[in-house]
């Protein structure tokens, strides 16, 4: 196509400066990375090292969805409208209250000639980076989403940078199941790494019947944990986790009650050498500290975590322990999580029940 005289020149994939970490997409404020930005540019015209996806489904992280659901008393229309408003305003799905987002699946539409991601047009992929840093535009008004679950059928486009991470979806698993696993695949990978650094540790998982919690329990056992303790808040979740057989001990306790939680874990064979926090509610930091032995490790995978509360709480309790932020990425984390799903019947059953209930 020839540009008409006086018209603005068309953008091409090679136009404009580009950064592998996506800073060229930041609209405000200047000088920050895409995750910290208030607004991103979701323009569908890609740079030479970018990839554009046609969005098929979003997966909100658990903390973000819970906050939206609680704020709107479960009203599906109100939840849907707020998600649309966030994306339209920010150019990404970045919940301003929880600071979290989620991830998505889609089909590769266009690949820039200098993209290092080894993707091909037509690939169906899951993004393994947060929606809080992914330029995103929604074009269908989310009309197919009933607002009652974390997974959102959607149409639109998203942009991946040179340093983004994406995985081609496996052909042997239902889409919803694969998406649910890949959303939390960092949890079992880091749990395995930390478990292997101890000699037969006791591992406690807060939120053991959830997606990341069930994978963390399976990973800890496979990595050589002597004892696994799954902590859940309700009788129904206790029954589910017991049936799955992923924990040596299943304990009912409110993770927001630090004294009660510490006592419950001790009674189940603790304190734990490693405590993994996989809950979607705030206020569990001090309970995790009291549940963990001196010299132990707490891994925070919850986006509801207050890291200030964790650091100051440990200091105030004179707790000598290592506290890790589960950042969601380790090499090979998606493949490992999918392997646990395929080979651990209890994990698969929990995920199938979860994805069915979200429909």
Short description:
The chain is built from eleven helices and 14 strands. It is an alpha/beta fold and 359 residues long. The model is unreliable at 1-14 (pLDDT under 50).
Secondary-structure blueprint:
Elements: E1 26-28, E2 39-40, E3 51-60, H1 62-71, H2 76-90, E4 102-111, E5 124-127, E6 136-138, E7 151-160, E8 166-168, H3 175-183, H4 186-196, E9 202-206, H5 211-222, E10 227-232, H6 235-244, E11 249-252, H7 258-267, E12 272-277, H8 285-290, E13 292-300, H9 307-316, E14 322-325, H10 333-343, H11 345-357
Parallel strand pairs: 9-10, 9-12, 10-11, 12-13, 13-14
Antiparallel strand pairs: 1-2, 3-4, 3-7, 4-5, 5-8, 6-7
Helix pairs in contact: 4-5, 4-10, 5-11, 6-11, 10-11
Highlighted features:
single chain; 11 helices; alpha/beta; 14 strands; 2 domains; 359 residues; disordered N terminus; 6-stranded antiparallel sheet
Write up what this structure looks like.
By secondary structure, the chain is an alpha/beta fold. It has two domains: 23-169, no CATH class; 186-357, NAD(P)-binding Rossmann-like Domain (Rossmann fold), CATH 3.40.50. The chain has eleven helices and 14 strands. The chain has helices at 62-71, 76-90, 175-183, 186-196, 211-222, 235-244, 258-267, 285-290, 307-316, 333-343, 345-357; strands at residues 26-28, 39-40, 51-60, 102-111, 124-127, 136-138, 151-160, 166-168, 202-206, 227-232, 249-252, 272-277, 292-300, 322-325. Helix 6 links the parallel strand 10 (227-232) and strand 11. Helix 4 (186-196) packs parallel to helix 5 (211-222) and helix 4 (186-196) crosses helix 10 (333-343). It is globular and about 60 Å long.
